[in-house]
Amino acid sequence: YPGSPKRNVDPEVTLLTFLRKNRILLIKVWAVSVGGCGACTVMVSKRDPLSTKIRHFSITACLVPICSLYGAAVTTVEGVGSTNTRLHPVQERIAKSHGTQCWFCTPGMVMSMYTLLRNHQQPSEEQLLEALGGNLCRCTGYRPILAGGRTFCHFLPFIKICTELFAEDEFQPLDPTQELIFPPELLRMAEKPEKQTLTFRGERVTWISPGTLKDLLELKAQHPEAPLISGNTSLGPAMKSQGHFQPVLLSPARIPELSVVSKTSDGLTIGAGCSLAQVKDILAERVSELPEEKTQTYRALLKQLKTLAGPQIRNMASLGGHIISRHCYSDLNPVLAVGNATLNVISEEGTRQIPLNEHFLAGLASADLKPEEILESVYIPHSQKWEFVSAFRQAQCQQNALADVNAGMRVLLREGTDTIEDLSISYGGVGATTISAQKSCQQLVGRPWNELMLEEACRLLLEEVSLPGWAPGGKVEFKRSLVVSFFFKFYLEVLQALKKLAKFLPVSDGHHYPEISDQFLSALEDFPITGPQGVQRYQSVDSRQALQDPVGRPVMHLSGLKHATGEAIFCDDIPTVDRELFMVLVTSTRAHAKIISIDWSEALELPGVVDVVTAEDIPGTNGTEEDKLMAADEVLCVGHIVCAVVAETDVQAKSAAGKIKITYEDLEPVIFTISDAIKHNSFLCPEKKLEQGNVEEAFEKVDQIVEGEVHVGGQEHFYMETQRVLVIPKAEDKELDIYVSTQDPAHVQKTVSSTLNIPINRITCHVKRVGGGFGGKVGRPAVFGALAAVGALKTGRPVRLVLDREDDMLITGGRHPLFGKYKVGFMNNGRIKALDIECFLNGGCMLDDSELVTEFLILKLENAYKIRNLRFRGRACMTHLPSNTAFRGFGFPQGTLITESCITAVAAKCGLPPEKIREKNMYKTVDKTIYKQAFSPETLIRCWNECLDKSSFHSRRRQVEEFNKKNYWKKKGMAIVPMKFSVGFAATSYHQAAALVHIYTDGSVLVTHGGNELGQGIHTKMLQVASRELKIPMSSVHICETSTAMVPNTLATAASVGSDVNGRAVQDACQILLKRLEPIIKKNPEGTWEDWIEAAFEQRISLSATGYFRGYKAFMDWEKGEGDPFPYYVYGAACSEVEIDCLTGAHKKIRADIVMDVCCSLNPAIDIGQVEGSFIQGMGLYTTEELKYSPEGVLYSRGPDEYKIPAIADIPEEFNVSLLPSSQSPPTIYSSKGLGESGMFLGSSVFFAITDAVAAAHRERGIAEDFTVRSPATPEWVRMACADRFTEMIPRDDPKTFKPWSIPIA
Predict the structure, then answer these.
(1) Which of 96, 947, 1009, 1059 could, after both became Cys, cross-link 1155 (CB 3.0–4.6 A)?
(2) Which residues does [2Fe-2S] cluster 1 bind (predicted)?
(3) pLDDT, tens digit, for every residue of 85-107?
(4) Rounded Cα–Cα distance for residues 948 and 1251 (Å)
């Protein structure tokens, strides 16, 4: 799409909004809008005015103002290729390598990869990883995406690429001659640029883009308060989330003088308009040209630029904007400050220089730009001999995350000595802006670079760089520790550099520098960013199986190609319907309060606002007593829905929502934490309890007893497609069509029915596909569907409701945080004789699924272990937080962490490896669970032994121990965990399913079933079933959508049984039809399928059939504590190895091996994708995903900037998955097993590998083992757990003396 914006474009409109609203292209993802997920990535092409070359770069469309694209060409995924014309090789390969599940991240991945290939036809692996570093995926685990991308890379013979899941030789070649050319019209514009000023006026904002530097300076003098906007990566998010507003914006994009780069003998001057990506290239080029001693500062900047944000942000953000913004987390400003950079500023009055020092960074008027000045360029001097510059940063994860603390450090030593001549240290993340430790540095000048100086420096730095206990962002003690840890790393780096320099000094010099212990050397190395390698193993189909039979083969996702081209239609892709309104929800800002009044008068006066919907407008029931749809008299959490605005556009509705005034009266008590809930006896449901044997008696007979606590934080679903619904009222009989992103359309249908007080048969819910669910779209979509339906009924017009990411995370809740207490009794040989566990879940303010989650948690707590004397108790706490709900694993990932923590505690006390304790206590023979359900553990033991073997566990364990002996500041850890995961619901009625199969007279087949496509490939598997049963090619079978009008009374697609039960229903329908066709086939055995269908029609044989599966028998009697609640078990084991940095808390995942029991896989490509995706999601739960709440109950982490799901750099370096060859035959479709949830818990192997590494540090340092376990194992937790001389130095605050920034809720 060639960019020459219309003059009437609103400057507040982003490229993404422009493309969607004008329906120029159907780029779909627009709920995040802060540039953090990469889903809306597009390619921008521009002619560089200095080099005259065409530059292609990726950007996030949600941040880029449409006005900034004058003269640019924009390519979206739809422009790259389509299924109707020609697929681009990138699209083909990402689909056929199974790199797409729910779709929502796929267009962004395609465009990042496509842009890379436009710049590098055969990229290196490093370039591929960098290109995808700004793209998040919640489904796949990234491995298959990289597998597709690697097919374009240089051949690397040492990489183990497994191509069993796809045939690489079938891919069409990449032909650069077939790519889109840069539009000639834009080329002519670029060659003869207009010098006139362009002005775009919107309702609130005016955008001015001058063509010359002179005009820009005149405009800046006229509008001194107007900011210069380049990439919009700072101002854009601030305007969206913090409501910042600027009436005039000046764009310097067309000023070539701001992009000039000049090299001199003493330094480098870089134009302020250069993007950070361009700065990175400029610095890399200079480093390659100059001797190392001159490029110390440049290398430090390059190090920071590699991990600063993602490539899309680096392509947009300018050097000048980054410096002028002076964010406290800036990665570059600390390095530029210590590197003595100078700012060249210009105005109509002329030019002048400002040192980029602590005064400028603090914003002192005397050291800052004047309002009429702009930053023209930045001068960065060369470093010199005996000068050393380093940069450091630590964030929640390695890439695309804001730093918790960063630093720039520079020291100049007197030539030939280790005496400090000049020292400069700056930190980010420890104050409102970058902090310079000027006083400390001055006091250290003249000191020798030795251990005594180190001790004194740490003391001085901690005094000067002080951080109050209540500091914004929290993590105060962790940040204090990083202040000195970073300096220690710098100390070692300088010593190492001195050691190298000493080789070139005369022997007669006689100066000896302090030696670095070999054990300390690993502290100097940062963890590299590497992509996963590995092997995926699965059982091949029987050689006698018909080639046309797709069951058991790695068939590509049914919608894979449409995912890759952007043609797959989702709920919010339905074009605007006639008279449609947009709904925005208004939520409570108080945690527990009475609603005194709601004043919407000001909102209704705004243009475009049609009405306000409150609880009083609900004609039927307002939810249930336990779960209200909308607050009526009382709010129970921050984020509780109070009312909703409906307006002509989303912008108008959001503006009006901000004008609604709600008056509250605060109520007591206000409960956020589990401990407070226990204190106030605040629970949502009765206690659930299971017991076997005699626990108290067993405790009296054991050798040892250990008691401990386990705290597991919550988890956000972070489905890429946020909650959304479109309700269209029909003209008669109160009928409604509802298009909704849900796992349970029948529940939406029933809730709307009761809310509107109309029969269910008037309401039809449609689900084409869902952009990820993970349990978060089981119950919550019914609330949004009902509210939108009330709005539609009240106004008589269609209503669309789309939550943005912030509101979705605030309102919907997630995985239940858990607090567990255990008491375990065992013999000295590690045999566990008694185990007593009490669990408390933080359920939030309403019941939702909390009682069910508690039940499932208790039922699954024993995991793989046979312990004769057990007592499990669990309760869900009522707190004033948003209600937590279903989430993949449904209590198992939290609860079983307690069980496995008991195992590691027993191992520590017995002085035995945890794997030995696991083996000793595992089920060995046919037995009964704590709830008296019989099962055979044969497959469990096979998975365990296979995992030990495939991972070479014992030999690698010895290598880990050897590594730990040789390294003090880096430690490795290994863990292997077994799993017995019960599949399904604990009730027979929840396993029923139906399907409707039509055969048309041309022989084509339409299948409809009760399952919903969430990205897990259920529709693909149903086509495989129909193809096998009807003995026709998959290409003859089609699935349109899931609809309550076609298959009624469906159940949620959840609990890992979606394919099981719906597959049985499809099978039943196909078998009914085939039975009807039997006489015809018998009469004409040589005929074709089409012949038989034509004959059947002629003979009046029905070609439509309903298939039905009555469900697996499942029940649980909680009074007796026994039952057969689950139809079958999935077994598995995972082994992980990690390396931690004890000084920073960072960790690197070295290897993960998973063995999973799938019996007979319906589709190994899809099943392996489910295993990998759930493992990585579980890994996120246990390592990086951390929800932070204020003391007032406000969720801080409401987007990808604050909440870090695993990114591509977080995947294990080696990632192997094996599907265990079939053994037992479960009562499922073709003896397959559901794998949607089970892999989640196996991610805990990474957690236990980290704690194993921490335990190694404890043993070396003589620290007593702590039996309080906290998840996630964030860098903060790891660093503070690895106590050492530096953590002992830091000041500690009395928690009673200040109000913390955040509170722990588990």
Answers:
(1) 947
(2) 37, 40, 62
(3) 999 999 999 999 999 999 899 99
(4) 19
